[in-house]
Amino acid sequence: MNRTRFLVVVFNMFFILVSAQQEVSSRLVGRVETQLGYTSNDAVPLWMRANQFGSVPSAGLSNSWIGSFYKTYRKPYDPNDFSSVDWGLDIQTRINLAEKTSAQLIEGALKGKWWIFEGRAGRAKDIIGLNGDTTLSSGNFAVSGNALGIPKLEIRIPDYYRLPFWDGVISLKGNFVYGWVGRRVVDRSAFRIPSEDYRINSFYHQKSLYGRIGKHDWKLNLYGGINHQAYWGNEKDVYGDKFKLSEIESFLYVFLGRKYYEPGIGSSKLGNQLGSIDMGLSYDFNNIRLFGYRQFFYDVGAISRLANIVDGLTGLTIENLNNMERASNGWIWRKFIFEFFYSKDQAGYPWSKPTKSGDEDYYNNSYYREGWSYKDVGVGSPLIIAASDAKEGQVSNPYRFFISNRVSALHIGVDLQIFETDLLLKATYARHFGNFTTSPWGSSLGRKFREPYGLFVPVSQFSTYLKAHRNLTRGFSMGLVLSADYGNMLNNSVGSYVAIAKQW
């Protein structure tokens, strides 16, 4: 049985189970959705495919079926309930019926919780980073929900826990992850022993810690935290006996972010490591909450000297705290988000503060040829463009998976309701400058600059997205999505689909 047929069978089994169990427990939730859509120019617009956790329609004319099954926890989060033990299940599959039929497991995770802790195993919909709204945002630098979830084992504190001293003024949350990325292409020049296909099995590590300062009745709250991600593993398949660390020692080096040095190999951190340092504050007025935030990027080390401090994601969210479900005049706004994304500096200019590692070259990696991607899709911000998604004609370094990681972008998002119809709007204007290997200065290492591979011509890109959703009776709902790309970075395209869903 091939993978497509297998997933179709699993899809049907889950919904038979949901139908049979809907009278048994209210904690079992099932949902099925069908979409009929079309995209022009054989391309899916950016915001129809970005930050969708890998749940993306096929280009052209297509019909999609999305099935979901969830077993939720019996009780909501309660930090005072030490005896609270429960388990849950998250399953979602997608089948695209188009010129080429495809099936994908979007989500498949078993989870359990005790007290403030939660453990998960499998593929989950994950986002890491501090922003004002994960649905409206352009996406976090580290993990934005742009790609499929990486299979993993995870333990986390998912909600801020108020520490039991100083009257609970300090709250913490965080996570620890060990995952499996699969076979990754490694640059041929790294190998010290013969190899057949230059791919090795690689692992995934993630950890984060975030804090909040503020009490329940404070109008002002302060936020801060850091996240760290890494791909690494099986270095002996690349370096042979020259590599002296055991698997446990390798993981400790990754966990601590330590450099490894060995004659004949060189000095470097293992694999591909990156993340962000995040800060934010919120202030509650009578009916409005303002939340401002900033993500500082790090990739190869410039942040330790504040050399790339101008790069980052800066945002402001305005949230309506009025709890009315529907305004008397027929409409109500819920949230606005404004973001400025800047990754153009990278400590890569001749006048930048010098660092041993040179320009950051965000998401590209000299060891892993596919950089910060999973299954050919970028894991971080979708505003950094992979070469496979770019319009033909631009200069592209074949040793760089991401053709443009020097970006300046303005992004807005709006969430409102008009006559019981939920509307979500996103619009982005971006200016792309390639990367430093295709800049007039070339890439750098310390004070040394290499000749440019070629010159990337700066281009502009505008992308927009509108989603309308309305609940009907008996668990039915319907929706409409319109999206478009116009510019010289991505292929110009227009896309739309209508959707009908049923939830049990």
Automatic annotation (TrEMBL):
<dbReference type="InterPro" id="IPR038636">
    <property type="entry name" value="Wzi_sf"/>
</dbReference>
<protein>
    <recommendedName>
        <fullName>Capsule assembly protein Wzi</fullName>
    </recommendedName>
</protein>
